[in-house]
Amino acid sequence: MLTMLTSMYLMVQAVSPRSKPIRVVVTGAAGQIAYSLLYSIAKGDVFGKDQPIVLVLLDIPPMLPVLDGVVMELQDCALPLLMEVIPTDTVEVGFKDIDAAILVGSMPRKEGMERKDLLKANVAIFKTQGAALDKFAKKTVKVVVVGNPANTNCLIASKSAPSIPKENFSCLTRLDHNRASSQVAMRCGVSADKVKNVIIWGNHSSTQYPDVHHAKVEVGGAETAAYDAVKDEAWLRGDFISTVQLRGAAVIKARKLSSAMSAAKAICDHVRDIWFGTKEGEFISMGVYAAGNSYGIPEDLIYSFPIEIKNKTWKLVGGLPINEFSRAKMDATAAELVEERDTAVNFLSQ
Predict the structure, then answer these.
(1) What residues are annotated to the active site?
(2) pLDDT band at residue 14 using 50, 70 and 90 as cut-offs
(3) 50: helix, strand or coil
């Protein structure tokens, strides 16, 4: 029995009567990524400074005592936009009438676990969550999958929620996108906001392809192609790619924990762009349903592409020229996703 099943109202000060609260669920809400994420959501950094929020915190039963502590901390922040906090361990409560779902929780890979075992465990989780979204959430819900393997987990959730448009599902590759932008910025001696239109193609895994062939860097007030700004093709085709691909593992080795602060920031960036759109002339990276893509990627995948967003609707940036180097990298990560998908779909049917 939950100690805090009832909602906690945090009516700290009046908010605009024109703004109706939106319901946002975060799964794995007792974990370290959520701990870095929830404050930003509740304070208005994601959905807007005048948007009241009802936060639903979903986790497994053993984590409920920790969730109680998270709720207390959110209360103690005295945030004017946070109308209600609902801790729960049931999908019926977790996904009821939600506007946005941020699916952070997943089964982590444990020592001695084979990849197929990891996929099997996560298929069960995301099949259940997809079915719950289908049954309880608004049909307009925007679903962002963070828990790894994020692309395939997102695909399973979507397949398990047939009444929700596939376009409403996306997975997080924004962390990889931010990592790539930062690496280029540091190499050029500029701030990260001076770099735009890097692309993460494919899977959120070590096969992903960080591509700067279409990226721009502002140096000294002038915008130039990233290759011309960096002036080091060997680095761009070598250490740059491997650094971004293996950055998560490097963080774990150094920190003894996986990325949390940077992951939470990337989630905020991803969801805020869904809500408010991308800047004119800029695109970001996002794992989306591949149907109808112009890059020869198999269609029944969640694959990271360059994306523009307007009016809460994403559009794949098509027609970018692809050289042989990029083609090989894009196909390699697609092949991994096809293998993951086929393994997962086999489990889904069992």
Answers:
(1) 204
(2) very low
(3) coil
Indicate the burial class of 51 (C-beta count within 10 angstroms; 0-12, 13-18, 19 or more): middle
Q: Summarize pLDDT for 332-343 with one digit per residue, the tens.
A: 999 999 999 999
> pLDDT tens, 256-305?
988 999 999 999 999 999 999 999 999 999 999 999 999 999 999 999 99
The three-class DSSP label of residue 199 is: strand
Residues 6+ apart with CB under 8 A from 40: 46, 264, 265, 268
Which residue type, as a one-letter code, is found at position 160? Answer: S
- On whether the CB atoms of residues 74 and 298 are closer than 8 A, the answer is no
Instruction: Please spell the DSSP secondary structure of 306-333, one letter per residue.
Output: EEEEETTEEEE-------HHHHHHHHHH
State the alpha helices, DSSP H only, in the chain.
Answer: 32-43, 64-76, 91-94, 115-136, 150-159, 174-188, 226-230, 233-237, 239-245, 247-255, 261-276, 324-348
pLDDT digits (tens, 9 = 90+) for 20-34: 999 999 999 999 999
Is 153 buried (19+), middle (13-18) or exposed (0-12) by CB count in 10 A? buried
Question: Does residue 258 or residue 176 have the better pLDDT?
Answer: 176
Backbone phi, psi, residue 129, to 5°: -70, -40
CA distance 210 to 218: 19
**C-alpha atoms less than 13 angstroms from C-alpha of 247 in its C-beta half-sphere:** 23
Distance CA 117, CA 256 (A): 23
Whether 3 shows a pLDDT value over 80: the answer reads no
For the whole model, what pTM was predicted? 0.93
